[in-house]
Amino acid sequence: MKARFFMALMLALPLASGTASAADYVIDMKGAHASVNFRVKHLGFSWLVGRFDKFSGTFAFDDKNPDASKVKVEIDTASINSNHAERDKHLRSADFLDVEKFPTATFESTSVKASGPDKATIVGKLTLRGVTKDVTIEAARIGGGDDPWGGFREGFEGTTKFALADFGVPKDLGPASKEVELTLHVEGVRQ
Amino acid sequence: MVRDTTEGYGIVSRLFHWVMALAIVAMFALGWWMVGLDYYSPYYKSAPDLHRSVGILLLIALLFRLFWRMVNVRPDDAELSNFERLAAHATHWGFYPLLIALMVSGYFISTLDGRGIDVFNWFTVPSILEHKGWEDAAGKVHEILAYATMALAAAHTAAALKHHFVDKSRILTRMWSGPPPA
Q: φ, ψ for residue B179 (rounded to 5)?
């Protein structure tokens, strides 16, 4: 009787702790195993790809209960990098990101729903140019486990799409370039 | 008359003065206009290309002009009062550092990412400093110095007109027609 109770407890404990609180991860910026990329159509002829070099973030993840996951990312808008100084200067100006007034863009999840094995739909609030709107990120877990240096990591990618005008970007780049796609690749180190 | 004399300016100085004066004012207007162009304007690419190309040529011309000024005698300015002479020297010598800084800052806007500047598809000025992020500062400096240059040019023009109309002096005309025939 006593033994059985113990057995049950032993089984239940890790399960309970697992479901109650997902593990917290900090996105690995030190080792730069993360990137925030965007792409916008140029004239409708090609994709212009760029990135934000500076950002930080955390997420909570439990592979037993992915719906309890949370993610928060802060992006330094001035770190936009499209590999062309003059264009980056323009992108930082009031025509686009207005980084002096709005130095930070943030994303904070409000709900995570598993949509398949290692796949989830993340809804959250994106704040850009001071405007906060719900966006949906289609996310996929790439992998996770012990790293060779004594840590534990989980890595994901996620993509969302939104219209620049929805966030008050005044510059119109033309009919083919109204929307921007944002793709995040993040690897988090468990705390 | 190629060289300057105490009587007036030679053809080289006069040509450089007027061509550069015209080009610099036109460059200000071009720069002011082109930064407001819509992305789909047909001039969105060609206007900055022209601005950069002319800018590089102006920098070369300015350096030559500085050299030319130093190896020539200065036309006589005995008619000026001490204050006028001091103000004139400050204005004239003010143009050189101001324009050099203006052109260098403009050069940096375009070259801080390692790209060079194509001058009329004729030759390319390479990037000498790669420093991502400084293009914003370069742009601000360029804008401020452009306005400062126009302010100095306005002061210079006003003074020249004052000498011409109020003082009835040859100071303005000798920059146009050179020394009087001996």
A: -65, 150
